[in-house]
Amino acid sequence: MQALTDLTLTESVEKLRAGEVSSLELTQAFLERIERLEPDLHAFITLTPGQALKQARQADARLAEGRKNAGQPIPPLTGLPIAVKDVLTVKGVRCTCGSRILENFEAPFNATVVERLLAAGVVILGKTNTDEFAMGSSTENSAYGPTHNPWDVSRVPGGSSGGSAAAVAARMAPVALGTDTGGSVRQPASFCGVTGLKPTYGRVSRYGLVAYGSSLDVVGAFGRNTVDVAALFRLFAGHDELDATTIDLPVPEIRLEDDGDLSNLRVGVPEEYFIEGIQREVERSVRQAIQELEALGAEVIPVSLPHTEYALPVYYLIAPAEASANLARYDGIRYGPRVPAEEIWDIFRETRGEKFGPEVKRRIMLGTYALSAGYYDAYYGQAQKVRTLIKRDFEQAFEMVDVIAAPVAPTTAFPIGQHADDPLSMYLEDVFTLPANLAGVPGLSFPVGFDQQGLPVGMQLMGPHYREEVLFQAAHAFQQSTDWHLKKPELGQE
Ligand code: GLN
What is the pTM of this model? Predict the structure, then answer.
């Protein structure tokens, strides 16, 4: 018999509706599995079993009622357990952002995405591990210790949404929420062999998402296949009065045909993403996946995104600049713990000095410097101009193609500690994910193979603004004809 924790979102919802499984059984099965695997993986910062079981019982009552009087509408995800990255607020639950500075901060309200999913009926299992304030590519920058990759626990799961990606890969949750400022959904999805979406900037509300880089941040989702990610996305995306950057555009019904025909799809392959230094097996798997798209009928067209090489320096000016402003609010007065001192300036200094981790301090210093009088034009101003050129690269490419296919990261999951003393080498892991954030375009990462050590390789499809649907359709066709997304990590405890 299939274990309950092996059910996907779609399968769970079907079984819940049919009364073949109760939300309580399903939730308990995930909580038990989490308890068993947490010591090895550490995917969560906070678990909320009490609240989860309560929500599950309520869901079961609703489902029972719905079965009694047909016609009574039941929210679409009633009873489905999910996990939430710990930078998104859930009312009454602590929200640490992977930082000591918010160690005991209890969120007073729900993030809009959380609110919408709760209205859709979900059960929240807990808050997943993240690099401190989502700054990182490995989850090693969490003040609560690193998450381990379910495919090889000596390796990182990617980051910063590493806890969510690992939880989905290890079947500790069928789906999870993450955030992507420079790759934090796509890269961990790639490292953990799951499917992950970074929506278009402005498509999803950031209300209740603790800000990192406000012009780049977007909430995304992880699942075990495209259908699940699309189902979740549709429910949390869309205009929100509480976030003025969300666009007032309906989120279309996403139709995913099972015929696997991609004959109307033009796939662009950017030469700038197949550069020296990329792991051979990553390139091989991605090129094979592109051939598979071609075999499904797609037309493959070489394209150029000439300003790609500037994405890394531009991002590492803009993101820290925005972060330095956003993180100014953690001053020991309003939120979290306070290190006592006589003078107010000393409270600020001591609290921030003690409670922020080294990477966050590095970013605050970089950002403050880039924004300071005398350097503003040379660094921040210049970066904004080059950002426009990067955006134009995409606009021009999308005049010729519908989607762009590229590797997600230059390597597969690296060993814990490998980049620990060398921030620049860590930043280089982000070369292929940063451009989509700078341009604001959507990206979908999904598994396309394994390297020789049995670690998953991911590919990303990027599309024009607000065209998530075309990414889903292409990836779904791919998953209909391949089984990379069905592979499951073997965990010692099973
Ligand atoms: N690795 C990138 C950074 O550290 C991206 C992180 C993210 O997307 N949140 O900034």
Answer: 0.98
